[in-house]
Amino acid sequence: MSRKGTPVPALETLFHHRWGVPTLSLLARERGARLARLTRSLGASAGACRQTLDALIGLGLVIPNPGYGHPLRPEYILTPAGEALTGPAERFEAIARELGHTELVRRKWSMPTLHAIGGGPERFTDIRERLERVTDRTLSGALAGLEDASLITRRVYTRRPVRTLYAPSRAGEALQAPLRELASA
Questions:
Q1: pLDDT tens digits, residue range 94-114?
Q2: Which of 53, 90, 106, 162 has CA 20 to 30 A from 98's CA?
C-alpha cells in the first residue's frame, strides 16, 4: 500500500529491473529463450539477466519450460499472466525506440514516475504519494531525467506559495498508454 492507502502500481515492481519489460518482449517474440540467448539479444550481463528472470519468476510472469532441455540450462517461457503483458510491453518498447529513449526508460524510477504524473499537472508531493518506495532524492533525479528527455514539462509558479507542476509532454503521453496497460494487466 502507498502512503495514502491506495494500491501500489505494478509498474514499480515491473520496472525495478531494467531488463524486465525488454525480457517480456523478447520471450514473446522468440516463444521462449535460454539465458545465453537473452544476454546476447538484450546486451545485458548474465547476472543482470538472471536477476531479472528471478524477479519475473517471482511475479509469476515467467517460468522455466518444464518440458525442455537440460535442468542447468533451462529455456524460459511466459506464463499466461506474462502473455497478457506482452502486447503492452512490445508497444512500449517500440515507442521508446521510436522516441530514442531506450536508455532512459530502463532506469528504475523513470517510467513509474511518468505513470504517477498521469495527465498532470501534478505537484512533487502528489507524485511522491503515488509511488511506494521512492525517496525525495530519487524522485527529483527521475523528474530531472524525464524533463531533460522532453518527456515531461516543468512549470514553476512564483506566486506565493511557490508551486512547481509537472505534466507529460506529447512524447510522454505517447508512452503513457502502454504504461497504463502494463499497470492494469
A1: 898 898 888 888 888 989 999
A2: 53
User: Which residues have C-beta within 8 Å of that of residue 55, sequence separation ≥ 6?
Assistant: 13, 16, 17, 20
In which region does residue 76 sit, left (phi positive, over 0), alpha (psi from -120 to 50) or beta (all else)? beta
Any idea which residue has 502512503 for its cell? 3
pTM of structure: 0.80
Task: Give me the domains of the chain, ranges plus CATH numbers.
Answer: 17-99 (1.10.10.10), 108-184 (1.10.10.10)
Round to whole Å and give the CA distance between 24 and 89.
7
For residue 127, how many other CB atoms are within 10 A of its CB? 22
CA angle (21 as vertex; 95, 148 as ends), nearest 5: 50
